[in-house]
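ok so i was messing around last nite and threw this chain in just to see what happens. nothing serious, just curious
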Amino acid sequence: MYDQKELPDLIKQTLNSRKAKRINDPPPNYRHAGVLIPLLVEEGVHKVLFTKRTDTVEHHKGQISFPGGATDDEDKSKKDTALRESYEEVGLLKKNVEILGRIDDIFTMESSFIVHPFVGFVSGPYDFEIQEIEVKRLIKVPWDTLIKNNLEDKTYTVESAGMSYQTPAFEFNGDVIWGATAWMMTNFIEILKHK
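result:
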C-alpha cells in the first residue's frame, strides 16, 4: 500500500496539504494536551512508537498511549508540549525529531483532555530512556501491521463509569491499543488513505 522508503515524505506532504481539524470551543472543564506520534525505522522497517503506561500515573493507568501530556504554562505551543513530554517520558531529544505535521484534535472523555497530536520522524537508531514512574515499557509496532489492523476494522469494548462503549482497536503481540490512542491512529491512517 505504501512504499516504505517514501513513507515519511508521503506523510509530510499529506499532512501539510490539509488543515487539521481543531477543537476551538471546548467545554470549560477540558484541559489541553500535546502528544507525539513517533515514527522510526529499524532494520529497514517503519514503526510507530507507543508507550505502555504504568499503573501509578494519574490518567489512563496501564493503557497504551503515545508520549505526551498536559500543556504547561512554559510551553510556547502544543507542539512544544508534545516534544517536552516526549523527552520527559522516553528521553527523546527535540533535535532528533522532525515534525512531519499534525492530525485532527480529539477529546478524551474519561480524563477531559483536548489532545493535539503531532507526527514526528525520529532520526536513529535511537536509544530511548524511559521514565519508569510513567512508562512501563515501549512498544514498536510495524507500520504495515497497523495498516492491516485498520483494514480489519477491529473494535474493543470499554467499560467506564458503569457504561459500555466501542472504540477502534489495534492488536500487536498480545497488546491492545484502544481508546484515544486508537482513535488518533485511525484518524492518521484515514488521512493518508484519502490523500
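not much to say yet. The mean pLDDT is 89.
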